[in-house]
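Q&A FORM
Asked by: J.P.
Topic: structure of ATP synthase protein I

PROVIDED:
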Amino acid sequence: MAEYYALQRQLLQVTLICTVVIFGAVWWAYSLNTAASYLLGAMGGLLYLRMLGKAVERIGERRRQFGKSRLALFVVLIVLAARWQYLELMPVFLGFLTYKAALIWYTLRAVIPTAENS
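REPLIED BY: S.T.
REPLY: Here is the structure written out as tokens.
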């Protein structure tokens, strides 16, 4: 389990680093409003990744509960972005998907041989 927790921590850290870098780039290239929309989505994605990790941790238990709360998080973010005039929908959505960058990073790190992995 220690290896799983280390992986979970790494994924959260990489997601957070990507969030900070992309937030700065969006703020520089667009506006603070767009960057704030991105940041809201990215924080939602970070929370989603954490919830997903907790769900994976519970695999094998007898409880059969589907990811309703994770889906609800995504729906609330999108509805909030669509209804609130200060938020932009696309940056919120793309911000939410930022956690995928950490998953891609991990996959590439696992597949591409390096001096550490050899």
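FOLLOW-UP: The chain has one domain: 18-111.
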